[in-house]
Design brief:
Elements (H helix, E strand, L loop, with lengths): L1 H8 L5 H9 L4 H12 L3 E3 L21 E2 L15 E7 L3 E9 L19 E8 L6 E6 L5 E6 L14 E7 L11 E9 L12 E10 L8 E6 L5 E5 L4
Parallel strand pairs: 1-12
Antiparallel strand pairs: 2-3, 3-4, 4-9, 5-6, 5-10, 6-7, 8-9, 10-11, 10-12
């Protein structure tokens, strides 16, 4: 799991790690993409240079230069605690997503696909293609790897009978639902078929994005949430040309 921290947090959380990432070959454009994302410009999503194994290990070098949100902000615009981040890649089939969550107490009790995953520690990802009248596609995923996917047309109701074909893998540093020990983090790696979203996989394709993470801190019942995108600060993903 330590390599996950290096791959996912370098350039985002620890100053020493930032220096290490630059020394190992991280390019300034990755930092520029983060700055643009924070400013509200489109977040460029690089094309993967090779196969991405959806195994939760995040070992492919492409993840080091993926389009990333940087730390999710809280309601005041400061870096939210605990730390959360999302990264994105694409190829001719899928939008690849990595979701990282620092977490000292992993909680997830929902086991049914399309169940109320959002009541657990969870990420929620909403994607809306740029074409006028496009529906919004919703994904919730917990540290147990349980998912909910649904489709919501403009002004309509959420339809959880829609199936995206998403593939998800999870890696955890900690034990689920055991408050007696101190956990560290969990990572989701997912592949979402772009055509299931009505998107032709091609450079220049755009989707609005809203990705949030909610957590119940250790010893409490209250929830803390942070997000990248949403109505108050809309964000867009743009598929970048193949390198």
């Amino acid at each position: 799991m330590r390599r996950l921290v290096l791959a996912l947090l370098c350039g985002a959380a620890l100053a020493g790690c930032q220096r290490g990432e630059r020394a190992s070959g991280s390019s300034p454009p990755a930092e520029a993409r983060e700055a643009l994302a924070r400013a509200g410009a489109a977040l460029l999503v690089p094309h993967a240079s090779g196969p991405i194994a959806v195994d939760g290990e995040i070992e492919e070098l492409d993840w080091m230069t993926a389009g990333r949100t940087g730390p999710f902000p809280d309601a005041r615009g400061a870096e939210a605690r605990p730390f959360s981040e999302a990264r994105f890649l694409w190829d001719e089939e899928n939008l690849y997503v990595t979701l990282y969550a620092a977490d000292d107490d992993l909680r997830a009790t929902v086991t049914a696909h399309d169940g109320p995953v959002w009541i657990d520690d969870a990420f929620s990802l909403h994607l809306t293609p740029a074409a006028p009248g496009s529906p919004t596609y919703l994904f919730d995923v917990s540290p147990a790897g349980v998912t909910m996917d649904a489709r919501r047309p403009p002004g309509g109701k959420q339809d959880a009978s829609w199936e995206s074909g998403v593939r998800v893998a999870v890696d955890r540093d900690g034990t689920l639902n055991d408050p007696s020990d101190e956990d560290e983090e969990w990572v989701i790696e997912a592949a979402i078929p772009l055509r299931a979203l009505g998107v032709t996989p091609a450079a220049g394709a755009r989707l609005s994005v809203d990705v949030s993470r909610c957590d119940t801190p250790r010893g409490t019942t209250g929830r803390r949430c942070a997000s990248f995108g949403g109505a108050a600060a809309p964000r867009t993903l743009e598929l970048a040309p193949r390198r």
